[in-house]
C-alpha cells in the first residue's frame, strides 16, 4: 500500500533503474512507512529529456494505460474543456477539490509512470523544483495538524485536458497545495501558462540537507534589485502593500498594465540578471521549449518591466512582479518569507490558446 | 496554508478586494473581485447573510452589492462619476463560506469627454471593509485602452489614480508620455477650467465670502484671496498629477469643518467690532 511518506525520489530511482536514461542520484531513499521527511532533490537529477511532443505523448499514454477505466474517466477530459483547464488553485483539498487521480491512490507502477510523464515533460531543474514543492508540502503536513484541510504528497492530482496526441493539442495538469502546473502541449511545443508555484515552508532540512524549493527565485530577485542604482530602484519600487497575487487562480484572460522599471532602462549586465531571474520560471519547461521561450523574452526585454514592493533587505518577504509582452511573473509572500505564492502567465497564450 | 501557521497580515485573515480598471475613450470599466480568507470567510458570509438563515438570497445579494457600491468613489477629471452595475457573479454559499468562492462585481461609468485636455485622471477609492481587508488595484490593458501616463496608489491600495492620455491614438502604447502641448494652448484651457471649477464649487465661494466677512483692509483681503488661490492651485495640481491621493471623505468633511470654523471666526470678529468693517 502507498504511504504518503514515501518519497517521490524513491520512485524516481525506480524510473532511473528501469530506463536507458543516465539518471544518477545520491539522494537517500526513505523507505515507505517511515516517519522521516521525504528525501529532497537538492540538485537537479540527470535526466535526458528531449522535450519533444512525441516523447511526452508516449509517456502520458503509458501512464493513462496503467489506469482503470473508472480512473481514466475522471482523469482525461475533452480537449478545450474550459471548466477543467481552469480548475487549479493554490488551496489544499478541503477548500478546493481538484479533478483527476491523486498520488495517494496510485500503485507503485502507476506512480512511476506518472513521474516519468513529469520528468519527460519538464527540465531536470523543473522536475526537481516540482518534486521539492510537493515534498515541502509533505513536510508541512508532518509538522502540523491541518484540521479539516487535506494536503501533502498524497493530495497531488494529475489530469489531462484532451487525450495526449502528437497532432491534436492537449494539456497536462499536475497540482495540489501550492502547485498548479498547466502544460499545454502542441504538435511541436510545450508551454507553461498559466502555472502556479508556491511553497511552505520555504526551507526544509531533511536528511541533514537544507533545501529551498523556490530559493533561487527570491535570491535572484534580490540580486537584480541590489544591482540597480538608487534612481532605478525608485522607479522599480511601488510603495504599496500587496497581500496576494494579482493574477492568481481565476484571473485568466487579463493583461495588467506594466509598472516599474523597464528592461530598456537597465544596463546589459542588469538585463542579464533580469533574464536569469525570469529563467527560474521559464526553465521549469523542458530545455528545448524553455530555450525557445527565452528567445522570445530576450527579444522583448526592453518593454519587460520589473516592479518591487516591500523591503530591499535580502529575503525580507517583498512582493515583486515581472510584466512584459511575453510573460507575467508574480512573487507574493503571504505575510513573511516562509509561505510563498508565485505565478507564471503568458500574455500571448493561455492553455495553449493564442490570445 | 495550514491551520498551524501564525503569520500576520495574511490573506487567510483578510478579505482580499482586487479591483481591475479598464479605461476606454468613452467608458471606464471596473471589476471588483472579493475573496475571503478561510479565517474570515464565516464572518464575511454572516455579514452578507443579513437574516442569518444560513442562505444568501437574491435580496441579500442586491443589498451587499449596493453596500459595496456605496463604498466606492470613482472620479474622472476630479469630478465624481456614477457607476452602473453591469453584472455580478456569485459562488455557491458553500464556496463562499469555505473561503474558496470569489464574488465578482462589474460596473461601468461614462468617460466625460475632455476635448480641450490631452490627459485625464481616473480615481478610485475603496472603503469597503466588512472584515479586515487587503486591497489590490491594477489597470488592465486591452486593444481599446487609452495609453497610461501615470499610476499612483496609497500604501493600502485603497486610493488609486490613473492618468490616461485621451487625445492620442487608441491602445497602441500603454505607457505613452502625456504631452500637454504648448503654453499658448494650455493656458486658455486652464483659465476655462478654473472658472468652471470655482463656479461649480459652491464651497469655494462660501469659504472666500466667510474669509471676507472677517474684514480688514483691502490689502489684507487681497492677501487672503491670493493665498487661498495659490494654496488651492498647488493642492489641486498635486492631486491632478497624482503626487498626492487624498482620502476624499476626510477632505470633504474637512472642507465643511473649515467653513464652519471660518464662519465662527467671522462671527466673533463682528461681535467684537460691532459693525462690519470694509475700509
What does this entry look like structurally?
The complex is a heterodimer of chains A (355) and B (279). Chain A is of the alpha+beta class. Chain A is built from 10 helices and 15 strands. In chain A, strands 1, 2, 3, 4, 5, 6, 9, 10, 11, 12 and 13 form an 11-stranded mixed beta sheet that branches. A two-stranded antiparallel sheet of chain A has the order 7-8. Helix content of chain A is 32%, strand content 17%. In chain A, helix 2 (53-65) runs antiparallel to helix 5 (108-121) and helix 9 (268-282) runs antiparallel to helix 10 (287-299). Chain A has helices at 8-18, 53-65, 69-73, 82-85, 108-121, 124-142, 215-227, 230-236, 268-282, 287-299; strands at residues 76-77, 101-102, 157-161, 170-176, 179-185, 195-199, 204-206, 209-211, 261-262, 305-309, 319-323, 328-333, 340-345, 349-350, 353-354. The termini of chain B are far apart. In chain B, the strands form 2 sheets. Chain B has a 5-stranded mixed beta sheet, with no helix packed on it. In chain B, strand 3 and strand 4 form a beta hairpin. Chain B has 279 residues and is α+β, with helices and mostly antiparallel strands. Chain B has helices spanning 41-48, 58-70, 93-98, 183-200, 202-213, 218-240, 248-273; strands at 15-23, 27-36, 72-76, 79-80, 84-89, 102-110, 119-126, 133-139, 148-153, 159-165. Chain B is built from 7 helices and 10 strands. The model of chain B is unreliable at 1-9, 170-186 and 274-279 (pLDDT under 50). Chain B is globular and about 70 Å long. The chains are: A alpha+beta (355), B alpha+beta (279).
Amino acid at each position: 500500500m502507498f504511504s504518503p511518506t514515501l518519497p517521490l525520489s524513491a520512485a524516481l530511482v525506480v524510473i532511473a533503474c528501469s530506463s536507458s536514461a543516465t539518471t544518477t542520484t545520491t539522494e537517500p531513499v526513505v523507505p515507505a512507512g517511515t516517519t522521516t521527511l521525504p528525501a529532497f532533490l537538492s540538485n537537479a537529477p540527470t535526466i535526458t529529456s528531449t522535450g519533444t511532443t512525441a516523447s511526452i505523448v508516449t509517456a502520458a499514454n503509458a501512464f493513462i494505460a496503467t489506469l482503470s477505466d473508472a480512473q481514466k474517466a475522471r482523469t482525461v477530459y475533452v480537449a478545450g474543456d474550459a471548466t477543467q483547464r481552469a480548475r487549479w488553485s493554490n488551496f489544499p483539498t478541503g477548500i478546493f477539490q481538484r479533478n483527476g487521480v491523486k498520488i495517494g491512490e496510485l500503485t507503485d507502477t502507476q506512480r512511476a509512470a506518472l513521474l516519468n510523464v513529469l520528468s519527460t515533460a519538464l527540465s531536470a531543474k523543473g522536475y526537481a523544483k516540482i518534486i521539492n514543492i510537493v515534498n515541502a508540502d509533505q513536510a508541512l503536513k508532518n509538522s502540523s495538524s491541518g484540521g479539516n484541510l487535506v494536503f501533502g504528497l498524497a493530495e497531488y492530482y494529475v489530469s489531462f485536458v484532451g487525450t495526449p496526441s502528437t497532432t491534436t493539442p492537449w494539456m497536462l495538469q499536475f497540482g495540489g497545495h501550492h502547485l498548479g502546473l498547466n502544460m499545454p502541449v502542441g504538435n511541436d511545443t510545450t508551454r507553461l501558462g498559466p502555472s502556479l508555484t508556491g511553497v511552505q515552508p520555504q526551507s526544509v532540512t531533511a536528511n541533514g540537507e537544507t533545501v529551498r524549493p523556490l530559493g533561487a527565485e527570491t535570491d535572484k530577485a534580490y540580486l537584480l534589485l541590489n544591482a540597480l542604482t538608487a534612481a532605478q530602484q525608485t522607479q522599480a519600487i511601488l510603495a504599496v502593500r500587496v497581500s496576494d497575487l494579482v493574477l492568481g487562480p481565476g484571473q485568466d484572460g487579463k493583461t495588467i498594465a506594466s509598472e516599474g522599471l523597464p528592461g530598456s532602462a537597465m544596463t546589459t549586465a542588469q538585463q542579464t540578471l533580469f533574464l536569469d531571474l525570469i529563467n527560474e520560471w521559464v526553465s521549469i519547461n523542458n530545455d528545448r521549449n524553455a530555450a525557445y521561450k527565452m528567445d522570445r523574452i530576450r527579444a522583448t526585454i526592453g518593454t519587460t518591466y520589473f516592479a518591487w514592493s516591500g523591503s530591499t533587505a535580502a529575503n525580507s518577504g517583498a512582493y515583486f512582479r515581472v510584466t512584459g509582452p511575453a510573460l507575467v511573473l508574480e512573487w507574493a509572500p503571504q505575510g513573511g518569507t516562509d509561505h510563498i505564492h508565485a505565478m507564471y502567465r503568458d500574455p500571448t497564450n493561455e492553455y495553449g490558446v493564442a490570445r | 496554508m495550514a491551520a498551524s501557521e501564525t503569520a500576520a497580515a495574511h490573506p487567510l485573515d483578510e478579505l482580499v478586494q482586487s479591483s481591475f480598471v479598464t479605461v476606454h475613450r468613452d467608458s471606464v470599466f471596473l471589476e471588483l473581485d472579493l475573496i475571503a480568507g478561510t479565517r474570515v470567510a464565516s464572518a464575511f458570509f454572516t455579514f452578507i447573510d443579513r437574516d442569518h438563515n444560513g442562505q444568501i438570497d437574491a435580496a441579500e445579494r442586491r443589498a451587499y452589492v449596493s453596500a459595496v457600491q456605496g463604498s466606492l468613489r470613482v472620479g474622472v477629471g476630479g469630478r465624481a462619476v456614477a457607476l452602473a452595475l453591469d453584472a455580478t457573479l456569485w459562488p455557491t454559499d458553500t464556496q463562499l463560506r469555505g473561503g474558496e468562492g470569489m464574488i465578482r462585481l462589474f460596473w461601468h461609468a461614462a468617460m466625460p469627454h475632455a476635448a480641450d485636455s490631452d490627459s485625464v485622471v481616473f480615481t478610485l477609492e475603496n472603503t469597503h471593509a466588512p472584515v479586515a481587508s487587503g486591497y489590490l488595484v491594477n489597470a488592465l490593458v486591452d486593444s481599446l485602452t487609452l495609453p497610461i501616463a501615470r499610476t499612483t496608489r496609497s500604501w493600502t491600495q485603497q486610493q488609486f489614480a490613473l492618468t490616461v492620455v485621451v487625445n492620442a491614438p487608441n491602445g497602441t502604447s500603454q505607457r505613452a508620455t502625456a504631452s500637454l502641448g504648448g503654453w499658448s494652448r494650455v493656458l486658455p484651457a486652464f483659465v476655462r477650467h478654473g472658472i468652471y471649477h470655482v463656479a461649480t464649487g459652491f464651497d469655494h465661494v462660501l469659504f472666500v465670502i466667510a474669509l471676507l466677512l472677517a474684514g480688514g483692509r483691502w490689502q489684507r483681503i487681497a492677501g487672503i484671496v491670493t493665498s487661498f488661490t495659490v494654496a488651492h492651485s498647488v493642492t489641486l495640481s498635486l492631486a491632478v498629477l497624482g503626487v498626492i491621493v487624498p482620502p476624499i471623505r476626510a477632505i470633504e468633511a474637512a472642507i465643511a469643518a473649515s467653513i464652519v470654523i471660518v464662519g465662527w471666526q467671522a462671527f466673533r470678529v463682528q461681535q467684537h467690532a460691532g459693525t462690519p468693517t470694509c475700509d
